[in-house]
Amino acid sequence: MSGHGTPIPMTSRPCGPLKGEANVPGDKSISHRSLILGAMAVGETKISGLLEGEDVLDTGKAMAAFGAEVINHGGGNWSVHGVGVGGFGEPDNVIDCGNSGTGVRLIMGAMATCDITVTFTGDASLNGRPMARVTDPIALFGAQSVGRAGGRLPMTIVGAKDPVPVRYEVPMPSAQVKSAVLLAGLNAPGKTVVIEKEATRDHTERMLAGFGAEISVEETGEGRVITLTGQPELKPQVIAVPRDPSSAAFPVCAAVITPGSDVLVPNIGLNPTRAGLFTTLREMGADLTYENEREEGGEPVADLRAKFSPNLMGIEVDPARAASMIDEYPVLSVVASFAEGETVMRGVKELRVKESDRIDAMATGLRLNGVEVDEGEDWWIVKGLGHGNVPGGATCASHLDHRIAMSFMVMGMAAQKPVSVDDGSPIATSFPIFEPLMGGLGADVVRD
Ligand code: S3P
């Protein structure tokens, strides 16, 4: 696949203990939403700690193309002068969301109830991902779409001129789809209702409430019922973006499998809809502690300490937890390789439609590195070899997927032989400081 310019082959060599503080970047989900909701508010939203990864920068460019003023003040401080709900103007060119499924799906929702026509595209990974999951519900509001076969990008969406509110039950566990429907509902008159059977990350609901929208969430027999009153005036906010638990996963997992390690990851967002990996690691016997637990900007936050954990055991991961750790299965499968016995992961069909087919990408790379894996459509089992017994030594394909590239870099830190990836360039989408940060802790990650 191509799409990120020149590939950057990378190698991670076995290293000594990882020690120190890992100041990981801002949360990707909250960063996208800060820019989009800032663009839909009236006035100036101030954002600190924004993730300045390619995915989020693409969303910032898109918001500017819709007419918001997006200003980078340096050091992660940004401001957005919004155009108000329903105020998006028609961009005069194609909106390129790069590698970002979150970016494109949330923006499609946000523009679907505006009287404008927009063409979206992305890189080879994004242009292969399913978009019908968003175009189906936005059609109910009155938006039309034309894309490539299978509902793929590039795709043009004609926003609804006279939108109507919608009641929609999200058919798969997807915060992106839920959020797209809620953002579309913002410019529809009356009440839009979204029902999700399984709880997914709830940043959109929390942030909409913060921006002054009338939104309620009810836990019922049919699931989480979210009711949003359309056409509010969103009030600009001051947002401090917490650090990303999905990025923290990499130094945390690296510390857990690398002998002698002791790493502190300060100020991590620990929203329960995101923290499933840490619960799972503890069940496997990982030495993780939360320090200084607190609440910041409506999100629970703590400092997370991870230490080398020599007696990891394989477990059956609770499928009910899948949505709360959906982006962390690749790096969990690396930790599982260093555990004794099998780690069983079920109910994870969504992994097949991420930036890559993550079950296939990880299973193939783990096997090349000497770890046995069984897999089916919505499950996989990693047969752990125990600490010190993972051979390594192979080069894996990252398939334009940042989390696949970083997972294999983590594996190389504690395997017997180095582990390489054919292309580490996608890491810049979510964790642009991965190499210096891991190097500062003592990892030996180099560009070949
Ligand atoms: C995200 C939701 C998840 C996740 C993605 C970010 C979000 O996708 O994989 O990295 O910010 O809403 P799905 O909602 O499609 O599972």
UniProtKB/TrEMBL annotation:
- Judging by the UniProt lineage, the source's domain of life is Bacteria
* All residue ranges annotated as the Enolpyruvate transferase domain in the record: 15-436
Binding site residues for 3-phosphoshikimate:
28-29, 33, 174, 176, 327, 354
Q: Which UniProt keywords apply?
A: Amino-acid biosynthesis, Aromatic amino acid biosynthesis, Cytoplasm, Transferase
Catalytic site positions: 327 (proton acceptor)
> Which reaction is catalysed here?
3-phosphoshikimate + phosphoenolpyruvate = 5-O-(1-carboxyvinyl)-3-phosphoshikimate + phosphate
Q: What GO MF terms are annotated?
A: 3-phosphoshikimate 1-carboxyvinyltransferase activity
* Binding, phosphoenolpyruvate: 28, 101, 129, 176, 358, 403
Q: Which Gene Ontology BP annotations are present?
A: amino acid biosynthetic process; aromatic amino acid family biosynthetic process; chorismate biosynthetic process
Listed under GO cellular component are: cytoplasm
Task: Show the stretches that span the lipid bilayer.
Answer: none
Per the UniProt entry, the Enzyme Commission number(s) are 2.5.1.19
* Secretion signal, residue range per the UniProt entry: none
* Region: Disordered, residue numbers: 1-24
Q: Which Gene3D superfamilies match?
A: Enolpyruvate transferase domain
**Subcellular localization:** Cytoplasm
Q: In which pathway does it act?
A: Metabolic intermediate biosynthesis; chorismate biosynthesis; chorismate from D-erythrose 4-phosphate and phosphoenolpyruvate: step 6/7
Q: Which InterPro entries match?
A: Enolpyruvate_Tfrase_dom, Enolpyruvate_Tfrase_sf, EPSP_synthase, EPSP_synthase_CS, RNA3'P_cycl/enolpyr_Trfase_a/b
Q: Report the protein's function.
A: Catalyzes the transfer of the enolpyruvyl moiety of phosphoenolpyruvate (PEP) to the 5-hydroxyl of shikimate-3-phosphate (S3P) to produce enolpyruvyl shikimate-3-phosphate and inorganic phosphate.
Summarize subunit and interaction data from the UniProt record for this chain. Answer: Monomer.
HAMAP family from the entry? EPSP_synth (MF_00210)
Q: Which family does it belong to?
A: Belongs to the EPSP synthase family.
The protein, known as: 3-phosphoshikimate 1-carboxyvinyltransferase
Q: Which organism is it from?
A: Shimia haliotis
